[in-house]
Amino acid sequence: MSGPVDRAALLGREAATLARFVLVGLANTAIGYGLILGWLRLGLGDYAANLAGFAMGLPISYGLHRHLTFRARHRATLNEALRYGTAFLIAYGANLAVVALGRGAGFERSALVQGLAICTYAGVLFVLTRITVFRAQPARSLRES
After folding, report:
1. In a domain, 125, yes or no
2. Which of 10, 33, 111, 117 is close enough to 98 for a disulfide, judged by CB 3.0 to 4.6 Å?
3. What residues have CB less than 8 Å from 112, skipping those under 6 apart?
4. Cβ-count burial 43-82 (b if 16+ within 10 Å, e if not)
């Protein structure tokens, strides 16, 4: 039977995945944001501090999202890791665009701009990883579960 019941189940699964993404992301972001602010405080510029925080968080992010957020059951592959890396680079580019816009508006070394940049990164990363890296599996019937 397809229809509203299947759509509701799919939306429920996606909402749960998004909630896990947010929780895993909050933990990862807290560490990365703390590092970024620390490097800013130590005198690194916006871009260097931002890059250092994200570079250290990338392998942690991949592992946590793979296992906890998207609950991948298959063996990790190089292709999957490369797709995640590509999604990361695109999301990181969006992040840097926000930093550049903030700096252009006169907000250099701004915690607010860095926070907005991280939120932009997270939104783009979720969409790209869900679509290109950890694709949603077709819903199973109750008999298959």
Report:
1. yes
2. 117
3. 102
4. ebebeebbbbbbeebbeebbebbbeebbeeeeeeeeebee
In a domain, 61, yes or no: yes
Q: Which amino acid is at 83?
A: R
145 in a structural domain: no
Cα-based angle 60, 48, 57 (whole degrees, multiple of 5): 5
Burial of 3: CB neighbours in 10 Å, binned 0-12, 13-18, 19+: exposed
Q: Crossing angle for the helix pair 78-104 and 46-64, nearest 10 degrees?
A: 150
pTM for the full predicted model: 0.74
Q: Please list, in sequence order, all residues whose beta carbon lies within 8 angstroms of the beta carbon of residue 39, skipping any fewer than 6 positions away.
A: 48, 49, 52, 53
Instruction: Report the number of distinct structural domains present in the chain.
Output: 1
CA angle, 68 then 74 then 77, to 5°: 100
Instruction: For residue range 3-56, list pLDDT tens digits in order.
Output: 666 888 888 898 999 999 999 988 887 878 888 898 899 999 988 998 888 787
**Side chain identity at residue 76, one-letter code:** A
Q: What tokens were used for 141?
A: 């019937």
75: in domain: yes
